C-alpha cells in the first residue's frame, strides 16, 4: 500500500484542496493517532467539513485507482480563492468583489460577515435549545398518553356488561 499511497500524494502535490499525509503511530505520531482514534495499522482517515476533527475511516480499496477515485470524488471539492480552481460562479464573483476592496473595505466586510456568522450561530443554538425543551415536553406528554392508553386497554369499566344481562 505504501507505493500507492506515495503515488497518491504525488498526484495531489500541487492541489491546495487536498493533502495526502502519513503519520507513524508507533513513534512520534502516537499522540496524534490517539486523538483521532487510530487503533490498528495501517488506518486511512480522511477529513472534510462534515467529518469533524477526528475524521472518518476510509473503508474502500487500498490500491491507487481506488484511493484516487475516492479522493477526487470526496476530497477535491473546495474552492481555491488564489487560483479559482473548484470555485462555483457565485464564489468567483465574490472573490472578484473582495479583490477590488480597499484594505478598509476588506476589514469592514470581514467584520460584517463575522458578526453575521456569530448572530446566525447564536440563533441556531437558541433554536436547538428551544427544540430540545419542546422535545423533552413532547416525550413527557407521549409517555403519559401511552401509559393512559395502556391502562384504558387493560381496565374495563365496572359497569361494563351489566346492561347486557
By secondary-structure content and strand pairing, the structural class works out as mainly alpha
Helix count equals 5
**What string gives the helices and strands in order?**
HHEEHHH
Global geometry: flat
Low-confidence stretches: none
Q: Roughly how much helix do the residues carry, as a percent range?
A: 55-70%
Main β-sheet, in a few words? 2 strands, antiparallel
Measured by DSSP, the beta-strand proportion falls in: under 5%
Task: Compute the separation of the termini in Å.
Answer: 84 Å
Task: Tell me the radius of gyration.
Answer: 28 Å
Q: Total number of β-strand segments? A: 2
Main sheet: strand order: 1-2
Mean pLDDT: 88
General description of the model:
The structure is a single chain. This protein is an all-alpha fold and 165 residues long. The chain contains five helices and two strands; from the N terminus they run H-H-E-E-H-H-H. A two-stranded antiparallel ribbon has the order 1-2.
Task: Provide key terms for this protein.
165 residues, mainly alpha, 5 helices
Walk me through the topology.
Elements: H1 2-11, H2 30-35, E1 45-46, E2 56-57, H3 64-75, H4 89-99, H5 103-154
Summarize the structure.
55% of the residues lie in helices and 2% in strands. By secondary structure, it is mainly α.
Amino acid at each position: 500500500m505504501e507505493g500507492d499511497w506515495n503515488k497518491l500524494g504525488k498526484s495531489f502535490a500541487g492541489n491546495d484542496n487536498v493533502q495526502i499525509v502519513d503519520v507513524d503511530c508507533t513513534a512520534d505520531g502516537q499522540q496524534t493517532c490517539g486523538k483521532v482514534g487510530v487503533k490498528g495499522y495501517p488506518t486511512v482517515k480522511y477529513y472534510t467539513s462534515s467529518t469533524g476533527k477526528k475524521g472518518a475511516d476510509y473503508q474502500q480499496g487500498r490500491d491507487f485507482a481506488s484511493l484516487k477515485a475516492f479522493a477526487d470524488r470526496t476530497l477535491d471539492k473546495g474552492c481555491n480563492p488564489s487560483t479559482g480552481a473548484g470555485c462555483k460562479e457565485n464564489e468567483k464573483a465574490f472573490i472578484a468583489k473582495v479583490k477590488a476592496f480597499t484594505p478598509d473595505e476588506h476589514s469592514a466586510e470581514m467584520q460584517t460577515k463575522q458578526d453575521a456568522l456569530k448572530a446566525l450561530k447564536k440563533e441556531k443554538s437558541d433554536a436547538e435549545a428551544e427544540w430540545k425543551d419542546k422535545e423533552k415536553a413532547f416525550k413527557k406528554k407521549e409517555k403519559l398518553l401511552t401509559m393512559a392508553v395502556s391502562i384504558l386497554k387493560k381496565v374495563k369499566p365496572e359497569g361494563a356488561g351489566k346492561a347486557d344481562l
